Amino acid sequence: MKRSSRSSLGRDEMKTTTDAGGDVRLSGISKTYGSFTAVHPLDLTVPQGSFFALLGASGCGKTTTLRMIAGLEEPTSGTVHLGDQDVTALPPYKRPVNTVFQSYALFPHLDIFENVAFGLRRRGIKSVKKQVGDMLDLVQLGEQARKKPHQLSGGQQQRVAVARALINHPRVLLLDEPLGALDLKLRRQMQLELKRIQTEVGITFVHVTHDQEEAMTMADTVAVMNAGRVEQLGSPADLYENPRSTFVANFLGTSNLIEAEVDSRSGEDVVLRAGGGKLVLPEARCAAPTTTGGKVLVGIRPEKISLTHADDAGGIPEGRNRITGTIAATSFIGVSTQYVVDSAVCPEFEVYVQNVDRDTRLAPGAEVVLHWSPAHTFGFDAEQAIDAGLDEEAAL
Predict the structure, then answer these.
(1) Is the pLDDT of residue 6 over 90?
(2) What is the rounded CA–CA span in Å between residue 3 and residue 134?
(3) Judging by DSSP bridges, how do beta strands 204-209 and 51-55 pair with one another?
(4) What is the residue-averaged pLDDT of the chain?
(5) Which residues contact 126 (CB under 8 A, 6 or more apart)?
(6) For residue 175, which of 7, 207, 277, 342 is within the disulfide window of CB 3.0 to 4.6 Å?
(7) Cβ–Cβ contacts within 10 Å for residue 244, how many?
(8) Of 16-20, 57-61, 173-177, which range is least confident?
(9) Angle formed at CA 384 by CA 379 and CA 387, multiple of 5 degrees
(10) CATH classification for the domain delimited by 6-241, as one of 3.30.750.24, 3.40.50.880, 3.40.50.300, 3.50.50.60
(11) Do 284 and 336 form a contact (C-beta atoms < 8 A)?
(12) How far apart are CA 299 and CA 220, in angstroms?
């Protein structure tokens, strides 16, 4: 749907309003309920104009953290700053933030125009037509202005909720599981819509979700939370490619983790012994001591692995990590085939192979060689729980 030119004026006005907003800064923020600590003291900075996600399973402290930014929960310790302003003691209605919840909370008796105009009218603003029009154009609902909420789809209703929040020109928009009530197809559409809207208006979005795909699709920066602490903070690509703990490796997608022992060093690489064979790991990608004889957990993502029938093993290039095994199960899922391989180093090694040229010999019972570039390998301290994060809510 083509938006009218007036929406660009609204965006310029919003950017002017939010330019002085500054970062969201949490300093030593924590929350306890009696003897239970929901959020351990943490320091977190959300850069102005970024799309930031707090990601984790239920009970990890992400929503409590968001509510402390909004003023809906009082911190047990620490401070909340929006730019240079300490807002820790301010009630929610005095903070320059707005929140969009999973339940859209639209007024069923008002049409879409009046739902979006509600905040302006409460502030005594009488001339709302242009601002409401700009917001509805931004969320591509200009032609739906006189419909009632029940006449819109779930995704459209959520866009109305976003427009209603943005029209107040907040410095920060907080989103608490905003897509949780939508089906998979709508959820994916709305992920792209929210990212587009955030890019166009240029204000800070802080998004809470348990859905890994959702966080990685939309956010510039993701904080992975676990048991009230931030496990790792970084861009989606960095978290996925360079996890620093078994929890992050398992929670963000799938990882094959192998128990190994440090054998020796070769330049900038560490040589490891695993299941009678050797694997090479770049030392820079190992978040563990690499003392000879020390234990290490070696990780590799399933899609980074190539699968070759044992009869063709002679054609595998030199310098690649190799593991031999037997295919235990296969699963065709359209774009790829997922293999489970039993081997001496890992009983259920997972491999994802794109369906480009399928080798019909790769069936259960076939002897195979798994091989991959050492550069795609990562390592952790073996004292970490190898199954950390596996029991959490998964979305990838």
Answers:
(1) no
(2) 9
(3) parallel
(4) 89
(5) none
(6) 207
(7) 17
(8) 16-20
(9) 95
(10) 3.40.50.300
(11) no
(12) 25
